[in-house]
Amino acid sequence: MNKKTREEAIKELSLMLMYLTRFQNNNEFCRYQELSSKEYEFGVLNQFEESGLLIQTQKSKYAYMTEKGKAYARELLQTYQLSDKELYERFVFRNIRQEEAEQAVFVENTCFPPNEACSQEMMLTRIAKAPELFLVAEDRQTGEMAGFLSGISTDENCFRDEFFWDADLHDQNGRNIMLLGLDVLPAYRKQGLARELMYQYLRREQEKNRQMVVLTCLPAKIKMYQKMGFHDEGIANSTWGGEQWHEMSYAIN
Hints:
- The protein has helices spanning about 5-20, 40-50, 65-80, 85-90, 100-110, 120-130, 160-165, 195-205, 220-225; strands at about 25, 35, 55, 60-65, 90-95, 135-140, 145-155, 175-185, 210-215, 230-235, 245-250.
- With about 250 residues, it is of the alpha+beta class.
- The strands form 2 sheets. Strands 5-6-7-8-9-11-10 form a 7-stranded mixed beta sheet.
């Protein structure tokens, strides 16, 4: 490791400490946000903000790190051989790759019964059309896909089943996101991975200035999504798989 100047060391150590000591916001309207203390050198914080590594909130002692800032902090942790939080040590969170489309189809068919799972054609078409809206959790040890969260963007406000099969409804600049599947393989469940996928997704889309995220779920999953901050809008306009669904929404901006 090259010797650092005092100023470089202060910046790098400050960023790593902000990352390692961040905590989940308890506000029911933005639980996905992770806050960091602003009790660091004022000039350093301003440099971080100018570089797009964090956003300082007004009239608050907290800031939150951007995805760019967290990615850089994780690089520094590896350089200094320091530990990350458990989920980041076990998984890589990233966009799906085109060559992983068949693997995503397998995960979908494993996680959902035949009447609820998207078909291979639907999955392949959406991955080709909007790979940036497929967030994958990759097991660092095996290199395999442990789960993913997928959606498409649109200016529409309500969910409809056509979003599943008509990839042409995807509008890259749409202000809202329609989530089409939260998939976690059985071996990785009850470890916080589903929640982390959701919170990472919400943070990423907030930085893209999306306004709202919408999903549908069966009654048994309502409480799970409410704990993530989603609001139950009642019975959805969906008959997917011959089931009765609830529409859930989350305002992120």
